[in-house]
Amino acid sequence: MRAAVLASGRGSNLQAILDACSKDGLPIEIVGVGSDQPGTVALKRALVAGIPTRVFQLSDYPHRQAQEEDMLIWMRENRVELLLLAGYMKVLGPRFIRQANFPVMNIHPSLLPAFAGLHAQRQALEYGVKVSGCTVHLVDEGLDSGPIILQEAVPVLAGDTEESLAQRILEVEHRLYPEAIRRLVLGKVERTGRRVQILQQEVI
Ligand code: GRF
Hints:
By secondary structure, this protein is α/β, with parallel strands linked by helices. It is built from six helices and nine strands, in the order E-H-E-H-E-H-E-H-E-H-E-E-H-E-E. Helix 2 (41-48) links the parallel strand 2 and strand 3 (53-55). 5-O-phosphono-beta-D-ribofuranosylamine binds at residues 7, 9-13, 86-87, 107-109, 170, 173.
């Protein structure tokens, strides 16, 4: 399956996906990595992996919709069948989501629907939860509100800072995102409305 990745930052989830492709046989081909931030680490990781990159900087467009239309053209030209958001820090507009004729996945560092949006780890610490985690979900027109594919809990420890909690969650993210992609691509994900059922792996 031909996949594109959008990332705005350091791209550690992008790296985990690239590694899963090269080392663990994740059956997707990353055909392009796009970013709204020129010169970001995620783009450098893509270049090292020999993957074409493209910058969609908002200031180069009259408005957000024009930027997203350009992204869609790029994805169509590259015959993208799956879009993976990996630390893409903008919410894709409803028009983009309606026009994308492929699934869009995202990873979020909390157990949704708790702590959607920015600074999820800080929100979790301020709320005082004892357990947080991460969620891989399909993207819909809302903010981190699409159907959930996989979630995994991570304990919040006494003395945690935003950084220490983020790091503990990130280690799980790097395993969970490739796993969710694998299941979706292998057709092990069945969706009825909001509810996503993970079909069991066959025992051979
Ligand atoms: C991750 O915590 C991810 O859950 C969130 O943004 C962060 C991106 O980190 N959506 P990285 O750029 O993949 O290192």
